[in-house]
Amino acid sequence: MTTKTKKSVTLDGMADADAPDEQEVVDRLARLLPPDRLQDALKGLKPDEITGTGGLLTQLAGRVIEAALGAEMTEHLGYPPGEAPPGGTGNMRNGSTGKTVQTDHGPVRIETPRDRQGTFEPQLVAKRQTRLAGLDEKILDLYAGGMTVRDIEAHLRSLYGTTAIGRDTISRVTDAVLADVEAWRHRPLEAVYPIVYLDALVVKVREDRSVQNRCCYLAIGVTVDGDREVLGIWWQETEGAKFWLAVLNDLNQRGVQDVLICCVDGLTGFPEAIEAVFPRAWVQTCIVHQIRSSMRYVAYQDRKKVAADLRPVYTAPNAEAAEHALGVFDQIWGAKYPMIAESWRARWEYITPFLSLPADLRKAVYTTNSIENLNRQIRKRIKTRGHFPDEQAATKLIYLAITRAEGKWQKAYNWTGALRGLKIHFGDRLPD
After folding, report:
1. Contact 262/251 with Cβ under 8 angstroms?
2. Taking the C-alpha atoms of 44, 47, 48 and 52 in order, what is their torsion angle to the nearest 10 degrees?
3. Distance (Å, whole) CA 355 – CA 345
4. Strands (DSSP E) along 184-257, which ranges?
5. Residue 60, Cβ neighbours under 10 Å: how many?
6. How far apart are CA 165 and CA 104, in angstroms?
7. Torsion of CA 179, 180, 184, 187, to 10 degrees
8. 71 within 8 A of 9, measured Cβ to Cβ
9. Which of 50-54, 97-101, 173-177, 314-318 is predicted least confidently?
10. Where would a tag sit more exposed on the chain, N or C end, judged by fewer CB atoms within 10 A?
11. E strand or H helix at 23
12. Which helix (H) or strand (E) holds 283?
């Protein structure tokens, strides 16, 4: 049994393989709407009569859609309008059915052609479809920007003057993202990630008539090519090393065999959780987190001096020089702030790995800024919401925020130099 693949067609019936490029489309529109005729059509019209609901622009959109549907019907039947079927028998046109579709220009009334045998399946505006794809994208963009379903409904009503797109419709559009989220969360991953950043952020979610804090766990991986990608979203009541172990096991089951460097904050038990799944990984504690943690104990008048005296520790050329600098710091401030040096020494094993790396690679691993920047972008979108009705609603918005953030990301800074350092230190563990 063979299946026939239906081709999409252009306005003049050309199939995809013969589809015109952008300049050809512009030239055709220019022939269809010569400047002098267009000026005559616009003469005497008010702005609302051109761009408003039911205006000239909307009517033109309807004519273009109808022309494209007519071309699809011609492709389906195999002969143009006004002619008889080949051989005098066979399928033929059978009038049209009117319906209103919601577009970027507002509601547009169109006539969809029918065929006698009922086998025509339009592609541009499918049967029972009431919205063009562009409008769904606009709804998702508004949702990703942090607007609620109620806000989007009011915005579309004021913009297009339509009440046809209600909250139920908007919810269905945004719920369609959940299938993408599910596939994305279970997709196979690279076998080796040179660098992985791990962090969590707190999101407010309503549960049992009260608003609770939920931890959203995130991971960003840097590929061998220097591209960054978010590896997944996981939820838990609180942040803890025990659940991070479950996250790392999930990454392993999805294909990650080795991680060269894991960049994390100072969470207790985090290094042990990483080493349980990826025993050969270097665990690097975020220096920025460590400095912030140290400065919590410092009086305001001492902050600048303490920060300046800590700087030689994390800018030292190697671990031995860093240890000496920490000793000097402790001699100066140990009597007043003994807990600072104690905190650095307690995490020393996971603070100093980056000091053995070249400068290009140090910049990539000494801080978790990459994932902190992602967290900031997510917070910008969720702060207007206050809280979410459930975890699913929060997942939708965070996923949309991630996909839009990833679209703007560039390769890791000076990745070629960093890659040389990785090859020197990790050898065959870094794939060619």
Report:
1. no
2. 120
3. 15
4. 192-207, 210-222, 228-236
5. 16
6. 12
7. 70
8. yes
9. 50-54
10. N
11. helix 22-32
12. strand 282-285
Alpha carbon distance 12, 18 (integer Å): 11
Q: How many residues does the chain have?
A: 432
Q: Ranked by mean pLDDT, which of 151-155, 205-209, 426-430 comes out on top?
A: 426-430
Measured CA to CA, the distance from residue 388 to residue 382 in angstroms comes to: 9
Q: Are 195 and 421 in contact (CB under 8 A)?
A: no
- DSSP E strands: which ranges in 312-373? none
Highest mean pLDDT among 169-183, 286-300, 402-416: 286-300
Say whether 388 sits in a helix, a strand or coil.
strand
* CA 145 – CA 205 distance, rounded (Å): 18
Residue 5 CA to its chain's centroid (Å): 32
User: pLDDT tens across 78-119, in order?
Assistant: 888 878 787 777 888 888 888 777 766 567 777 888 888 888
3-state secondary structure of 368: coil
CA-atom Rg of the chain in angstroms: 30
Angle at 410 between CA 407 and CA 412, to 5 degrees: 140
Residues near 384 by Cβ (< 8 Å), separated by ≥ 6?
Answer: 146, 147
Report how far apart, in Å, the C-alpha atoms of 220 and of each of 214, 236, 331, 426 are: 20, 18, 39, 20
Provide the token pair at 289: 């987190």
Distance between the two ends of the chain, CA-based, in angstroms? 45
CA–CA separation, 192 and 42 (whole Å):
61
Place of tokens 């985090």: 270
Phi, psi at residue 233, to the nearest 5°? Answer: -130, 130
Q: 3-state DSSP: the chain helix, strand, coil percent, rounded to 5?
A: 50, 15, 30
pLDDT digits over 11-35, tens only?
A: 444 444 444 555 565 555 555 556 6
Nearest CA among 260, 261, 204, 256 for reference residue 231: 256
Q: Which long-range contacts (CB under 8 A, 24 or more apart) does 182-190 make?
A: 184/232, 184/399, 185/232, 185/233, 186/254, 187/254, 188/254, 188/255, 189/221, 189/231, 189/251, 189/254, 189/255, 189/256, 190/221, 190/223, 190/224, 190/255, 190/256
In angstroms, the CA 93 to CA 120 distance is 10
Q: Which amino acid is at 239?
A: E
Residue 129, token pair as written in the block? 């479809």
- What is the per-residue DSSP string for 257-282? -EEEEEEE---TTHHHHHHHH-TTPE
Tell me the two tokens of residue 364.
């990539």
Burial of 320 (0-12, 13-18, 19+ CB in 10 A): exposed
